[in-house]
Amino acid sequence: xxxxxxxxxxxxxxxxSCVAVAGADYxxxxxxxxxxxxxxxxxxxxxxxxxxxxxxxxxxxGFQADVKALQKHLAARHLIYQHQHSKQMSxxxxxxxxxxxxYYKRFFPYYSFNVLGGLxxxxxxxxxxxxxxxxxxxxxxxxxxxxxxxxxxxxxxQLKSPSPLLLPVQDAVTPLAEAEAVDLVKTVFxxxxxxxxxxxxxxxxxxxxxxxxxxxxxxxRKD
Amino acid sequence: MNFMASKQPENSxxxxxxxxxxxxxxxxxxxxxxxxxxxxxxxxxxxxxxxxGSTLRYKNVERMKAIGKHSLLGAxxxxxxxxxxxxxxxxLILYDNMWDDxxxxxxxxxxxxxxxxxxxxxxxxxxxxxxxxLGGIKNGQKYLGTVSMIGVNFEDDHVAxxxxxxxxxxxxxxxxxxxxxxxxxxxxxxxxxxxxxxxDRSAINKLQIAKITEEGMTISQPYSLKTYWEFSAFExxxxxxxxxx
Lengths: 223, 245
Known about the structure:
The complex is a heterodimer. By secondary structure, chain A is of the alpha+beta class.
């Protein structure tokens, strides 16, 4: 009898889309709240957004169990950091930690597609975008997840930053006002929900600015 | 030419010898579990069948058990793995009781523990082949969650495993509402279980419904649902059908 192969996969894709947009003095992070597997919706009310530090929020889509484990890991590391340094981790610091954490499991990856958003030490918005094994980049805006192929071109059209190859180095953050950026994000998810079956139900928006963190919700298509 | 035969250490999980130590597929399985939140707590239903492939081997399997004072666990999938999980939880509750500090693990904590156990087993490529439903109520807070064999977990107002996700969740999405009475909750669960009975090959007509409230857990005696097979469309199904002979 030929050697039996395992007929289960340690991975699953629970779907969903995440977006983050950086502004001059704010950052918008958003994700839908649908969790699916295959053609089934498991729940319509699942948050993909996790606050890692005071000014640093992560949205992740992909395999939910890995996402949860990753969030727990980072939260634990942040707690240790606070004990050792008597301060919160800055967003760029958390960005590096996330990259290292992901690469640590390079040969059995966290199936998690992340966008990290927050304010840097000067209070300016910053967004970092990742792949599943930790390759990352600081950008002005990004999307990940099942709807990212639909969302990213639209963001490029609306928020296109100057080429990073130009000199002097130009800023990637959008000149849009906070309210306009939030509106753009809502539009983007409404559009993605039309065509991506894994995106929908409800949109959760988190806005970080000098005043703190604010959360907002918007209904999306439930089909 | 074999300069240094690469040998696995004795306790490695790689290599053909190790496969007998890892779960590759389930043997005795239970089918769907369906649960919902109602006014006073959680209602959960599961049938009592233990299938061995396509054979209905065991007809008196209790797939729902009380955990501590505040929680109720229902499981589908491999029955022996469920029994193993009950042993883990026995230890967990025992140690919790031995603190004797007036505190007790609530459903949220038990659910988190189970999620970690399932995820860690999945990480070692040796999963507990179950889909678990964990419900309970503590200090007035109702909780209902689920974990799969690879660690995917979430909580909701109503959950189901396996076929229940396909057949029962749509009914629950349509008809569940906050503060269901006990009778309405049972009726709704029975509606779901009846559809599963008609359409799930591994379901049997012998089920229990468990309830957990602040007062504690009670589980019904096994009983069966009324079914109707006399629909005229099924009486002579091929009449009028176009055929080649």
